[in-house]
Design goal:
Blueprint: H1 2-18, E1 22-23, H2 29-35, H3 41-54, H4 71-77, E2 81-82
Parallel strand pairs: 1-2
Helix pairs in contact: 2-3
């Protein structure tokens, strides 16, 4: 019984460790298939073919345009789909400081 529990735990941990964020615009098919849940080698190859023919993906939802990939698969993987090599979102620009009038040195 103890061996069964250890095996189940190891399997659970391994299954959760598979998914990792992946740039669908630059990764090869093998990396995509290893990183996204429900995407095997054939679907990953279809993703690479699609981006080669159509151009880079602009949104994660655009993956649903690839044959064999549905919206549920996209939603399930959305947090692991990157569109650029920068994993973090671009910082939001800070509010612009009020401009000063060069002649009077007062804020406008």
């Amino acid at each position: 019984m103890k061996t069964l529990l250890v095996t189940l735990f190891a399997t659970f941990c391994a299954a959760n460790a598979v998914a990792a964020p992946v740039n669908i615009n630059s990764a090869d098919a093998k990396t995509i298939s290893e990183s996204l849940s429900g995407i095997g080698q054939k679907k990953a190859e279809a993703i690479v073919k699609y981006r080669t023919e159509v151009g880079p993906f602009k949104t994660a939802e655009e993956l649903a345009n690839v044959s064999g990939i549905g919206e549920k698969t996209v939603q399930k993987n959305k947090s692991d789909i990157l569109l650029s090599d920068s994993g973090a979102a671009a910082p939001k620009p800070e509010a612009a400081a009020p401009k000063k009038d060069a002649k009077t040195d007062k804020q406008q």
